[in-house]
Amino acid sequence: xxxxxxxxxxxxGAGTMGHGIAQSCSQxxxxxxxxxxxxxxxxxxxxxxxxxxxxxxxxxxxxKLNPDQVNEIIGRIKTTTDYDExxxxxxxxxxxxxxxxxxxxxxxxxxxxxxxxxxVFASNTSGIMITELATGVKRKDRFVGMxxxxxxxxxxxxxxxxxxxxxxxxxxxxxxxxxxxGKIPIEAKDGPGFYTxxxxxxxxxxxxxxxxAGLADIKSIDExxxxxxxxxxxxxxxxxxxxxxxxxxxxxxxxxxxxEPQYKPPLILRKxxxxxxxxxxxFKPGSRGGWIDHFKVAKP
Length: 300
Description:
The protein has 14 helices and eight strands. The protein is an alpha/beta fold and 300 residues long.
C-alpha cells in the first residue's frame, strides 16, 4: 500500500495512548475509527480529545486552532464497539491496548479475520517483540511496530520496528505515515523492549533501588533528576504516569527474555502492584495511587 492510498485509520483501544493516537491521526486529516469494548471509555476519550490537558481546546487557547477546526477534527473521529464496523474499509489499524501479549494476539487474530487483505497492522506495544505479536496473524508481511510516546499528540518520536517478516513496503508506509502526522520516525530493531523501553526501564528500576538503599527519598530523587538532568518529570512521577502495573509487566517481559539483572522488577514494585497501587490517581481514575500516595510524600 502507498501512503496516498491511506484514508481511514482504525485505532483499537481508547485509553490514554489510544485516544491520543486517534487525535493525532485526525489532526493530520485522516478519517479515524476509534474502537473500545466499553462505550463509557469511548465517551471519556472524545471528551479528553476536546478538553483534556493535551486536547484540542488547549490549542485554541494557544491560538493554534480555531473552534471550527476543533469541530472538524472531532468530526473525523467515529467511535465504535464493533469489529465489523471498524474493519469494513480500514487501511491501517493501530493497536493500543494494555501490554499483554495474549490480549494483543487475540485482538490481532480477530482483525486478521475481518479486515480487508490490504489492511496494515501496527502495534503500539512499548516492548513486546513484533515477531511474537505477528504470530497471531497470517499477514506477517503487513505487521509492524509503531511505538508512540505519552502524550501522543505532543511527543515527536515514533519508534518503528520491523518484525522478522515485515515487508519493506509496510515499514516504509509507517515511516511516511508518521511523517504525515508531523512525527519523527526512527527505526529500532526487534527485541524485548526495543531501544526506548529497555533504556527507560533500567533507569527507572535503578531509581527504585537507590530509594531502597536509603540514599535518597522519593521526593529528593525526583527533584534531583529534574534539576540535574533537566528531565520534565522525576522517575517516580514518571512511573506513576506510566502505571506501576505496566512497569512491572514490562520489566518481567524483558527480564524473562534477557536475564539481565537491571530489568528484574524490584520487590517493592511488585508489592505495590499487589496492594492495588497502580499509579497516580490523576492519570488512572479508580486506582489507589502510586509511589507518591503510598509513601505519603508530597509532590515537588
